[in-house]
């Protein structure tokens, strides 16, 4: 007997037949003797529909009202899923965020979970009743509905798993696991049986859309075993676990990319202390996050070129902000480029292997791919390259690090 | 300065433009210095959509889950209406049933309101904030969402008006008031300026669809002044008030009809004590309500014919139930007829005027309309006639009681 949390995303509960399919899957776990809590998202498209209603009424809206409106999507699927379970003879009830209660702070639309009170819900689980929880939502200190931000249902599921001491949290989605690369681009990509929290966190942050970053952070913090698997097949998925559990660690576990980057270069910035702080300070003040940074000495050695990346949706704002302080900062010209992609390799094995960067850069050089900016962490190396080389780079790196399916 | 409750039905909040229109109306009352609570239904069609989702998943469903799913419709409009108010500079927030809290018993899908705690909401009203309440929903003793049954938002509004001591409860709908008859049938029908609770209650029970019966009962019990008016025009509506407030009372205030009746006749029932109790007892056991009843002595004087009406949707069940006890009850034949209509005249003035029944029956006789069953109360007379005479009967009665416009 184990205690499990099963989370189903919007496509998995996208219509009545799929909700019935979810119920069948849950029933199998119940029949196997497990205690099961289910977390559901809104039906695919429903959050967008509700979001659009709100934006049409009030482009700049009160986040408290927004949360109350959009949280209704998960309320509907939670009820329908509980009913579908009852229909096939499984004892079940729905739980809304305020009923559990799942308490959050008051940062409406991007709330952080503070405490999940599991006394009521846990007692029902012990009695063998399936708890179908509305994902994405909680209750704030002001007794109003909060939401956790897009993709928040993953976080709901992992947090619930931690709170009820679940043996595993299965995230059912429309892919059957975590791959060494996007299989739509790299046909040789392989599904990973296991991946470490750290790697998953880097992959999620770097653009892989399998799990929400915050949910992985939470899983890592509370050591929740997470499995990513498909709601449309019975294949085992990918287990996200502690490093100790992975015996044979590859040097590199995956190759990923993000097109959501844009590059800004400030030409001939005066080379004096405090200038960089000035540039990045004004961007931070305007809520523009800067990711990769590189500084080159200019040809005459009297000034530097400062290059960095921002998220693509922030590019226009960043340019506007920097042009407004041109005189103050002191640079010759601002050049922006949104035709760039960030390609990354990720692997905890990097820590103990030398030469990973060399292998990466050589593989790219062999294909005549110019590296514009580099950034690294303990377990990843990211490079910024021109957008048209994306596929070529991913395939070259996948082969160079022996990830191709055999 | 007055305290007002304004209730808007599904067509009044049917799309974004209409919700904006509602906000403008509310703003006018706020600008006039009033404290305003608003009660909203779900957008037109939304409750049906949610109802159908539930029924597709589970034809015989757990009413607790049903309530949680369908209550989401009002949750959405409450949020959107609060946002629309904020957009035009009116301080507003939404209140869900559990947030107020509006406490009900545990009769899910047909819950009765037990107590509305107005401390929090009342404090906000006093501060000048509009309270936008989700209609139709409450919270049960088990901390789960309950709903009040179809049309329940009228009841929510009247109950809230009673609880906060509102000076008036305006029910905005798609008609501009209560008419002496259905204007689609009787072109001479006039809008009433005022009507008594008792009359409105009879009209609601007898098929007029302007207000939900329970909301009128509640208004009468708590003496809440209710106004029925149109959300699409600025004309004053009909005020539902105490009898004392109506100086010049008509003998008859309105003529109404219901096609939702069916007639059953049991021929040659043995004329002995207890038989009627037997017949109506078995129907009651099977949850079939009987409305009008008439008993005739048969020609030979040794048996009686028993005729009564049931709601049309219950006809098949009633026939099945009665055929099963044919031997026990002892009758010769069962004849059913669903081609009937109940036509009623309503007016508190009847109490003090003799001859009302005579006027009614003569008017019908003049048009050669045969009366099949009669039932009366202190302030109404209903007759059952063949369906094809509906329009003729309504027009004749409207004229006979001096209700025609002009």
TrEMBL record, chains A, B:
Every ACT domain range: 264-348
A GO cellular-component term linked to this record: cytosol
Classification via Gene3D superfamilies: Acetylglutamate kinase-like (3.40.1160.10), VC0802-like (3.30.2130.10)
Pathway(s) it belongs to: Amino-acid biosynthesis; L-lysine biosynthesis via DAP pathway; (S)-tetrahydrodipicolinate from L-aspartate: step 1/4; Amino-acid biosynthesis; L-methionine biosynthesis via de novo pathway; L-homoserine from L-aspartate: step 1/3; Amino-acid biosynthesis; L-threonine biosynthesis; L-threonine from L-aspartate: step 1/5
One GO BP: threonine biosynthetic process
Residues annotated for ATP binding in this entry: 7-10, 173-174, 179, 184, 209-210
Enzyme superclass (EC): transferase
Sites where the protein binds substrate: 47, 74
UniProt-listed SUPFAM superfamilies: ACT-like (SSF55021), Carbamate kinase-like (SSF53633)
Similarity field: Belongs to the aspartokinase family.
Protein name: Aspartokinase
Species per Swiss-Prot/TrEMBL record: Oceanibacterium hippocampi
